[in-house]
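C-alpha cells for chain A. Residues wanted.
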C-alpha cells in the first residue's frame, strides 16, 4: 500500500535504516538586495515581526525586498533630480562653486532619503 506522499508522486531515498522523502524547494530567481532592501529587512525584523514571518515562511521575502529596493532607488533618484531642478542646482554651479554645490546636493540627498524611508521603508 502506497503512502499519500507516494500517491502524489513523491519518492524516498534510503539512508541507513531510514526512508527519507526526496524534497526540494521550488526554483526561485536570485534577487540582489541593495541598501533599501536591507533597510526594509531590518525594519520588518524589528517592528513588523508578523509580516516578516509571513513573508519569510511563504517564500516571498526576497521578492518583496527586491521590489522595495528597486522602487525606493527609483523614487530616490527622481526626488533628487526634481529637487535639484527646483533649487537651480546645475553643472554651472558645480563648476563655479564646488563646495556650495556639494553642500546643496548632500542636503537634497538627505531629504530624499528621509522621504523614501517614510514612504516605502517604514510603511
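Reply:
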Amino acid at each position: 500500500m502506497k503512502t499519500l506522499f507516494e500517491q502524489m508522486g513523491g519518492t524516498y531515498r534510503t539512508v541507513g535504516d531510514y526512508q527519507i522523502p526526496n524534497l526540494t524547494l521550488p526554483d526561485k530567481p536570485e534577487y540582489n538586495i541593495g541598501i533599501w532592501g536591507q533597510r526594509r529587512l531590518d525594519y520588518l525584523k524589528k517592528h513588523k515581526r508578523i509580516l516578516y514571518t509571513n513573508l519569510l515562511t511563504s517564500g516571498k521575502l526576497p521578492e518583496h525586498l527586491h521590489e522595495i529596493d528597486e522602487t525606493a532607488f527609483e523614487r530616490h533618484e527622481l526626488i533628487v533630480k526634481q529637487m535639484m531642478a527646483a533649487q537651480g542646482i546645475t553643472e554651472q554651479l558645480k563648476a563655479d562653486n564646488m563646495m556650495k554645490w556639494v553642500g546643496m546636493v548632500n542636503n537634497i540627498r538627505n531629504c530624499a532619503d528621509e522621504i523614501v524611508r517614510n514612504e516605502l521603508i517604514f510603511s
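Strands lie at 12-15, 18-21. The first helix runs from residue 4 to 7.
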